[in-house]
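YM 10:42: Peptidase M20 dimerisation domain-containing protein sequence, as discussed on the call
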Amino acid sequence: THGRDSPSIVIFSITLLFLVATVRTFTFDVDAGLQLGKWENTTAISLNLRSGRLIIPTVSFTEINVNRSALREFDGLLLRKVFPKIFSSSLVQHELVGNYSQLFRIPGSEPDLEPYMLLAHIDVVPADEADGWDAPPFSAQELNGFIYGRGTIDNKQSVMGILQASEYLLERGYTPRRSFYIGLGHDEEVNGLYGAANIVKLLKSQGVKLQYVLDEGLAVLDGIINGLDGPAALIGISEKGQATVKLSVSSAPGHSSMLPRESSIGILASAVNRLEENLMPRLFGYGPERSTFEHLAHKFGLPLRFITSNLWFFSPLLSRVLERINNTNAFVRTTTAVTMFNSGVKINIIPSYAEVFVNFRIHSAQTLQEVLELVKSDERVKVELVNGFDPLPISSYDEQAFGFQIIKKMVQSMFPQLTVAPGKTSDAFLLNTDTCESLFKLINCFNTNVDVCSVFFIINIRI
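YM 10:58: structure's back
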């Protein structure tokens, strides 16, 4: 009898499982832990950006090589002229930090409330029109309804937006309840060692404890995830870790007419091939990425809605799907990018030395040390850590998380049609338990149907 009942029990269990999953699909909480707190109503302020910020080439080349004359020009000839109130108001405390970074403090009417900080950076990465720009990268040229220029997205639009909003409020005599800081770094693109790092030191020396920091992150985008109905804002609640690792091989030199069995280039090339063939482990569900998809579930069509509403069952399946897509593979694991390879001086000489640099963006469920252990595989290859840091702690994003809820309210007041979800991005300085409780990351601008990679990082950056 027991044997005859077994198929019935299995069928019943599968049917019950399917019914539970189906019910979850169509009743899954739209906010799923992101219930909006009853914060005070605010009014969105629309202010035009000044394109003059894009003409000044505030380029950071290396940690010690930044365009100092451009930074001085950006400060003296642009910021202080465009925003005179914030530099002259007796209410605002202003300091230059590290010669070129800016720190403002706007005191609130209730000094017992913990302040927050709005963070942006003035510097940009190098750009050359010969790389394929449709308009010169430092021209601020308008083309087909867009303003082109290095810094339109990363990150001068935040600099100008923050200062314009502050200028507007100061002109109208507004005093906030909660004090806040504005931090504008000048060398973020080269690790912020003299800008953000010195801002943190200054805040710590003054005993400042920040409620939260809002820094640059993803923009409000439409089409960032295939199958998602409508635009979405992923508020970064964690920062991936980073590591730059140098792999090098030293061997006896030779001549192409009498070559050795193995060369330094060949040994190193094999090591690089192993790195690219053996990806870092899948870690989907061990960081905030599962919450990201659960909060977006109701905006997917079938069958994705069914899958994302039931990640308690389908996480392994979704993980395998995401890793096959270049744009979403980073959700799943630590990414490995071979960026520089150096060796050889003459076409007929076998070099004695070869080196390669590899950049890792470390998943929040992994540590820097764990990544380094996985890199080591050949005793002939020397592994050196150039620089790196662990992933940042995950900031709270539930209904009691004041910072997250305020940012969500702000975004939805400007773009009522979008979906807000927690996410993660790829400045470690400011998330310090002595200085700051939570770090959130978002660029509050709207882009539709754009190539995220080209617009954010490479060429034809535009807004």
